[in-house]
Each structure stands twice: as structure tokens, then as C-alpha cells.
Specification:
The protein has 159 residues and is an alpha+beta fold. It is 21% helix and 24% strand. The protein has a domain of 106 residues: Roll (Nuclear Transport Factor 2, Chain: A). Strand 1 and strand 2 form a beta hairpin. The protein is extended.
Length: 159
């Protein structure tokens, strides 16, 4: 019977010279060293509007517009904040639109207001409105007036 040869086992040596050098992936940031404290991630911070956004303006005007469309505010209150064609659209929506009041009084609730600025000096906004058992969409366009630099509603649509 042949003798088993003694096998020499080399101890595992953890040497940095033998490790492959890893380059950071272009889409993933380099890991934070253990010496720095880790800051919690806030995924909604990435989606938040940039500084100087007109989100507050869009939200305030959306609320006033929905109050007019549901009959809680008179349409004349938005006359100076709209262009002539938009005011005509607004009055037509008040008379025959989907948000006109019915026999019973229902409360409306605004969803998240989505705004985008396709061009400098213009803002396109849409908002979902819960009105009674139904949900509706209201979209409008705000534009800066050339002389006064005030925001005016240039178009309104509701479904």
C-alpha cells in the first residue's frame, strides 16, 4: 500500500498586493469610508422640485381654480388672474363642467399638484380632484404677462 504523501497546506495570507483593484462603477457612488458618519438617504429629496420652483404658486392657483369650478368661490374672483380666452373657458366650465355642484354638497379634496415648465415664463399644471365619489382632473397653463410680469392663467380644462 502506497504511503500518502504529506501535503503541505499553505496558510491563507490576506495581502492587499494580490487583491484586484476595483474601479468604481460609473452609476454607483464609491462607498463611504467607515470613519465618516452615514447620512440617511431621502428618496423623496431627489424628486422634490428644484429651488426656485413654482410649486407653491401652482398649488395655490389650483386650489382657487377648483373652488371656482365647484361653486365655492365666484368666478369673477379669478378674472384679473386669467386671460380673456381662459376666462371664457372657465365660465363655460363653471356652467357645464364636470365639477359643477349637484343637489347635495360634497367636499372636494386636491391630490398632488404636478407642474412642469416647458418654457421660461410658462407653467403647465395638472391636479387630481376628489369630488364626492368621483375623481376628476383639472389642467391649466400659467404664463407670465409681458409687461407686468404677473402670472396669468392662459388655458383651463377639466374632466
Amino acid at each position: 500500500m502506497p504511503e500518502l504523501a504529506a501535503v503541505r497546506v499553505r496558510p491563507l495570507v490576506h495581502s492587499t498586493a494580490r487583491r484586484p483593484v476595483r474601479t468604481p462603477h460609473p452609476h454607483h457612488p464609491a462607498p463611504v469610508p467607515a470613519t465618516e458618519p452615514r447620512h440617511p438617504r431621502h428618496p423623496r429629496a431627489v424628486c422634490s422640485p428644484p429651488h426656485g420652483s413654482h410649486g407653491d404658486l401652482a398649488t395655490r392657483f389650483a386650489l382657487r381654480l377648483v373652488e371656482v369650478l365647484t361653486g365655492q368661490r365666484p368666478v369673477g374672483q379669478l378674472q384679473r388672474h386669467t386671460t380673456v380666452p381662459a376666462y371664457q373657458q372657465l365660465t363655460a366650465l363653471v356652467r357645464t363642467g364636470p365639477l359643477r355642484p349637484t343637489g347635495r354638497h360634497a367636499q372636494h379634496r386636491l391630490g398632488r399638484v404636478h407642474d412642469s415648465a416647458p418654457l421660461p415664463g410658462s407653467l403647465e399644471v395638472c391636479v387630481r380632484v376628489e369630488y364626492g365619489p368621483r375623481h376628476h382632473m383639472v389642467a391649466f397653463r400659467l404664463e407670465r404677462h409681458r409687461r407686468t410680469e404677473q402670472w396669468q392663467c392662459a388655458a383651463v380644462e377639466a374632466r
